[in-house]
Amino acid sequence: MTELLVRTERVEHARNFKTEVRGLMDVEHLVDRASIHRNMQHSHIHTILLTLFNELSSQFPREKFDVALFKNAIFSVSDKDSVAPRLHHKLQSYSGTDFFDVNQTWIITYAALDGLKQSHISIATLEEPTNLGLEMEEARIVVLILSPSFEKHTKSPAEISRTFGTLLTRETLRQAICDAADDDQIRECLKESAKQLSLQMSININEKPIEDENEKGFCPYYPCRGVIRDFKRRWTTYQSDYLDGIKDRRAISKVISTAVFLIFTILPTSIAYGMLNEKNTNGAISVQKVILGQWIGSLIFGIFGGQQLLILSTTAPLSIYIAVIYQIAEFNNWPFFQMYTAVGIYAMAILILAAIFQLASLMKFTTRSTEEIFSLFISVTLVIKVIMAVIKVYIHGYLGCIYGDRGVSCDPAEPLLFILLVLGTTWLSLTIASFRKSPYLSRWKRDLVSDYALPIAVLVFAFISYFAFKDVNKEQFQIFPISHDVHWVDFYNLPAEAHLPALGLAVPLATLFFMDQLLVTNTVDNKDNKLKKGSAHHWDLLIVGLLNIALSLFGLPWMHGALPSAFLHLKALSDVEDRLHNGYLKTVIVHVRETRLATLIAHLIMIPIYFFAIPHITVFIPTSIFNGVFLFMAFSSLTGNELWERILLVMTEQRAYPPTHYIRQVPQRIVHRFTFIEVIQLAILLAVGFAQYHYVEMAFPLVIAIFIPFRHFILPLIIRKQFLEVIDGKH
After folding, report:
1. Pick from 77, 427, 511, 632: most CB atoms within 10 A?
2. Are 285 and 319 in contact (CB under 8 A)?
């Protein structure tokens, strides 16, 4: 006979641990005697809950646990329906504004049973994300709460479930519970999280939060105020910047794998920009100089910088400025390095003044779109550079042979091998990186393999290139004596008439540093990345300015925060969680280990590489593999870029659109119109960044700066402000 199923849902407010004393009391009374079952392998909610019930029954033999009453109280459909049992009560976190309405990684179910004398809690962690049924399709944590039926309301199972449900809304706690080595560690995590919430949760009166006393009232402005506040804020967590990287086995493993990953991303980048600078300056700034400046500058910033997740590097726009300086110096017969150092000192003096007078605060007007356009520009630039490299090798090694331009290095197999190594390195690294989503091996083993995806791919194809295609020509970078890499630049001997042009060049260069450094910092500090230690915009500008003055004085290339290295560094140190909603899977960052150790270790390893390994690297690893690394970096950095996701929507069937917040709140045509405008801005950046003349390319930072007032004053005339706030609000 057909039956009717009645379902009722309601929204329950999270418990405020600061004002509701019951929260801490529930944790104190229940956690110590909780029944905990780690790494359960059952895949059926009926079996899991019965296992937890039986464990409670065994742990508390004096209590009367009636299995029949339990089944009737927990399951709304008879337990005879073992295929898909339904629960009377199911507590999960819900967000009407988040991408995922219901968080399916954890579930709490509860019941009141006759015969019990006290409340009990049982916790199970599942070995893998498991599909337990409707809106429980990726569960990792299952909690069962049982209470006496005669308890007062504040001690009812519903109220206790609200306590532990509030705790489990914290992604870091869920991750810690799943990674715990023993039951006591889970108990300590729950207690510590409850204590933190009791101190952190804001007090609400009439639904309006009370302001922090430290943020109330007038705070006078004075020079260096931002720098001092950044320093004080970051100093309080400075010790943890090191300890967080060694506090447990998983952290140590992540730091080591991230350090190795950074070597295999930063070193190819340094070599590529070194080759570009070498070409632009006729060897004055070589590959070795770039590598030397990379490890010196990054070690200094790694120790003294504010945002420890930033990766400093020389960049393509900086190479353009260096080329312009070289051309001007050669045209006027001025010593190049003296001119280079003078421009660097003037530009960094402007940058330091910007830090002193808190000009970084202007970046609060940037929105997500500006950062995403800049990030996508970097990714597209990497792809274009790879395509240009392939075309260059194809013309040199194949077309040149066909049309009779045969030289010593003419080899038709060279472009074919080049393409094979580029695509092979990219494919293998992306495939191994996605291995964590496969069903093979255990979870920590999959994560371990994925963490080393890029090093494995580079080494595999380096061996293939060296041993299987040893006789095929391969592009290599030139080696210079390292004795020429560092020298004091007597910039004070620069002719007097050269100082005014140097100052003129310094202004756009300082603008480039200002915009790029802060855009990269904002990308890393994005609230979606779950960082806790705060940013240090003004302090980092000061450190970058002082650092580049030192680099200028010794003829080393300039550097600032760079994408995608910084974002990939953050991802490598993070724990991620797959969220499922309406059949759409998305990976989100749960926890980031905010530590300095990975970047410091990576650049310490680069010291012996610089002194001993560079001649061997150019033989063993051809530039084609480096180009494969660039493609990997470009594709990996697209994850989470909403501009890229909206571009893909244009080619996506409408019924397959993901249920993002802007899809639900903004008309589709408005979303596509906004995306089209962003694509035009991206095209403008690409046109300027790849202009034929270096003087046009120097306008790159000014174009980015213009996008900010365009977003606030022009775009609202095209798209309604309420829609802009949804698609492109501040974050």
Report:
1. 632
2. no
For the stretch 441-460, pLDDT in tens is 877 788 888 888 889 999 99
Half-sphere exposure of 721 (CA within 13 A, CB side): 3
Q: How does residue 478 score in pLDDT terms, banded at 50, 70 and 90? A: confident
Using an 8 Å Cβ cutoff, are 675 and 649 in contact? yes
Tokens of 279: 């070409």
Return the pLDDT at 371: 84
State the number of CA atoms in the 13 A half-sphere of 495 facing the CB: 9
Q: How many CB atoms lie within 10 A of CB 263?
A: 19
Q: For residue 112, list its beta bridge partners.
A: 147
Q: 10 Å Cβ neighbour count for 65?
A: 18
In the block, residue with structure tokens 């990953």: 261
CA atoms 68, 70, 73, 78: torsion sign = negative
Residue 129 · residue 138 · CB < 8 Å:
yes
* Mean residue pLDDT across the chain: 85
How far from 378 is each of 502, 520, 574, CA to CA, in Å? 28, 11, 22
- pLDDT tens track for 111-135: 988 888 899 999 999 888 888 877 7
* Site of tokens 């519903």: 158
User: Helix or strand or coil: residue 74?
Assistant: helix
- Between β-strands 574-581 and 584-592, what pairing exists: parallel, antiparallel or unpaired? antiparallel
10 Å Cβ neighbour count for 581? 20
Beta strand 120-130 pairing with 312-313:
unpaired
CA–CA distance from 41 to each of 90, 103, 109, 414, 675 (Å)?
21, 21, 19, 52, 45
pLDDT given for residue 156 in this prediction: 86
What are the φ/ψ torsions at residue 579 (nearest 5 degrees)?
-110, 135
State the pLDDT confidence band at 210, using cuts at 50, 70 and 90: very low
Residue 404 pLDDT: 60
Q: Which residues lie below 8 Å from residue 174, measured CB to CB, with a gap of 6+?
A: 105, 106, 140, 141, 168, 577, 590
Higher pLDDT, 351 or 401: 351
Closest CA to 538 of 360, 309, 308, 349: 360
Q: Which of 145-159, 294-308, 660-674 has the highest mean pLDDT?
A: 294-308
pLDDT more than 70, % of the chain: 91
In sequence order, what are the beta bridge partners of 40? Answer: 126
Task: Please give the full DSSP string across 217-253, using - where no structure is assigned.
Answer: S-----TTHHHHHHHHHHHTTHHHHHHTTSSSHHHHH
In the chain, the N- to C-terminal Cα span, in Å, equals: 54
Task: Specify whether the CB–CB gap between 728 and 666 falls below 8 A.
Answer: no
Could you tell me if 37 and 132 are in contact, meaning their C-beta atoms sit under 8 angstroms apart?
A: no
Question: What radius of gyration do the chain's Cα atoms show?
Answer: 29
Beta-carbon neighbour count of residue 48 at 10 Å? Answer: 24
Query: For 211, which DSSP code?
Result: P
pLDDT of 274 reads 87
The span from the CA of 55 to the CA of 33, in Å, is 12
* Assigned token pair, 333: 């017969």
Nearest Cα neighbor of 513 from 539, 555, 541, 537 is 541
Task: Give phi and psi for 74, each to the nearest 5.
Answer: -90, -50
Spatial distance between the Cα atoms of 573 and 619, rounded to a whole number of angstroms: 31
Structure confidence by residue, pLDDT tens digits, 552-586: 999 999 999 988 888 889 988 988 777 665 556 67
Distance of alpha carbon 416 from alpha carbon 470, whole angstroms: 14
Tokens of 493: 């001997």
Give the C-alpha separation, 608 to 606, whole Å. Answer: 6
Phi, psi angle pair for 109, to nearest 5°: -125, 150
Q: Which two tokens stand for residue 308?
A: 């420890």
Tokens encoding 307: 């945002």
Identify which of 524, 505, 527, 526 has the alpha carbon closest to the alpha carbon of residue 516.
Answer: 524
Residues 6+ apart with CB under 8 A from 162: 12, 14, 15, 91
Interval 141-160 mean pLDDT: 85
Q: Rounded CA gap, 489 and 553, in Å?
A: 5
